[in-house]
Amino acid sequence: MFAMGEISKTILTNMCMLYDGEGHYLVQKRLKQDWPGLNFPGGHVERDESLEESVVREMKEETGLDVKDLEQCGVYEWNVPQENLRHLAILYRSCHYEGKLVSSGEGPMLWLDEKEIAKEAQSVDFDKLFALMKRGI
Known about the structure:
This protein is of the alpha+beta class. It has one domain (9-134): Nucleoside Triphosphate Pyrophosphohydrolase. 20% of the residues lie in helices and 38% in strands.
């Protein structure tokens, strides 16, 4: 953590876990080297949009799906001390979606169960995010 006054910028982001009610979770096999491995889709909150609008947009861009009935289910933060940055991700989940699943340039989208997820390479702290996001469902 930083001492008071050391953070110069906070970047607001989101992540969303879709689940199908049959034990499958939508994950992205992220290819970019800044955070490779399994992750949940998401991204930056743009200046002119609400938190929920940003999740809907990011999910459409990365998965092709239209999500609704989103539930905030946590917050995740990480710091980049060498850049004086804090990243704050608002976490969402839903089992309500429509459309045809597609993958983006960030990586293929996969419906996996918990056993399959455990066998895959995961991004940093994915296990913590997954535990937090599935709590209570």
